[in-house]
Batch of 2 targets.
Target 1
Amino acid sequence: MSEEYILHIINRIKSGEADAFSDLVDTYKDFVFALCFKMTQSVEDAEEITQDTFVKAFKSIKTFKGKSKFSTWLYRIAYFTTINFLRKNQVKTVSQTELFEKGFEPVDEDESTLKNVSQEERSHYLNKALSYLKPQERAVIVLFYLEEHSIEEIAAITKLSKSNTKVKIHRTRKKLHDILNHLLKNEVHSLV
Amino acid sequence: MEKDKHISTLIKEEFNRKKLPNDFTDKVMQKIAAEQVKVEKPIIGKWMWVVIGLLCLAILGFAIIYLVQNYASIYFSWNADFPTEYFSGINLPFIGLISTAFFVLLDGILRYRKRMVR
């Protein structure tokens, strides 16, 4: 859906055609859900937050002036709704340090190991590795890899500066690689 | 910034695995419709508040004038020039009766509108 068509839908909603909003929900629901799901790691919570995000977006659609892309504006609402949800519910993530304390030893990056496991296993390892990241870090990873947002867009969504975003993405990618390698190495040890 | 191919593929694979239920959009639209009903129009609108305010001011003004008309001669006996004669035509009991009738009528209208909103 082109940005022009999206602006046309938004204008229809602003002029009172509330039903037109369903087109926007259909277009963006999967990406919003993916972001919320990766941040919360719970399907039920993510579904609830995705709903809340769209309701909030509908209520404040009159404040959308079209200065940024609609998706950036919507993901910002989703990002902060999820952050607030996690803060309210005090969801704790296991830190990377705790992971290493459990007996995992650092290894050199070996991408081929990840290639050799089945899709089911890859998904399992990815989710496990993501669970060791902070929700903000997970969001950055999803926005960067899945939606392929630019640094500027990620900065606009997370309200971080451009340089901070760049550093955060770099560190989070490194962290994710380390964790995946630790997890995979441990699995190889348990099989031997 | 160069993207990591494997991580990117993994995230995209995972994205295709987890999907929202088919009726998700309907649920959202129902929630929005429910929220819209919750945001009721105020029973008393802006202009109604202006009318009520003006009426209250008028009643207060008339009450003051009535008091001045009846008791000024006692309190202001030292000043024989106080213009009490200007207010002699005001009938406060009649104004009170009209005001009460207005507010009873207003109450009836508001109750009716509240029933219609529900």
Target 2
Amino acid sequence: MITVKNVMNVEIPFISPNENLQKAAAMLKEKKTRILVVGGPNKVLGVLPEETVLREVLLNKKNPSSIKVAVVMHGAFHTISPCESFEEVEMLFKGNPHGRLLVMDNGKIEGIITELDMMAAIRDFTRKDYIVQDAILFIFGIITAFFIFYFSPAGYLLF
Amino acid sequence: MKTGKLVKKEVQVLESASIGEAARILLSSSDDMVVVVNKQNAPQGVITAHDLLSHVSKKGSSSAIVTSAMSAPCIGIHPDTDIDETLKVMDSERLRKCPVVNDNKVLGIVSMKDIVDYDNSNIRFHRSLQNGILVGFVLFEIGLLWFSHLRGVL
């Protein structure tokens, strides 16, 4: 069974709540991520999705160098345990508009799982499953061919 | 399977629009990018969330013209590219959607979800086929063993 631990991304992009949105925008771009985790490995204060940065600066026309991350971050965020099954992730993503979950274990962050990670995992899993089934089919094919030969006149002469 | 088979219509913005307008369109759509077109509807480039973040990190204004932040010429996938190759590009660029471009013309966009769904439905069909063949083999072998047992061959 695939669990969250097998799929999550362990490189967590942290940002301090005292940083400004200009720095946050640069970090989001540099780390090619869509979300920053506000706080540190032992204490997560919130999350800052890229949409929030763009909305605050480009739509609400706020000055990115004067707005602190702590002011606009989302204090409420979706979390999941690293031992949860993959089906649980799929279900949670249906109700998660940003398509990202923080993987937390006993209040400590272990990783992030995104919709992209989930899609990549589904893809890899189904492909591996397909290859395994092909191998089983091949073995059964060989056994069947052997039986057919065994009961054929040529097989009767040989065995 | 070619990427061109899974192309869908893209979201557009005029080249004279502001970055604020492009951001509004981008944030209100589920796409990861907006195609910048001229008055003749010819594509001039694309603007992604990362282009906008780059603009914000340089303290750019939201009233600046969209062409100042767009990626041009249109970066994207050729419609004849195999979907596996497209997925690799999307994985490395962390994109959920990607423009399909031919001769610097945007044909539309392709989404990772559509590719994965196509892939999965294809694999599900083959898996059902494999299951059927497997059951056939097993039944055939059980039949042979039973037959040989009756005849005292084995």
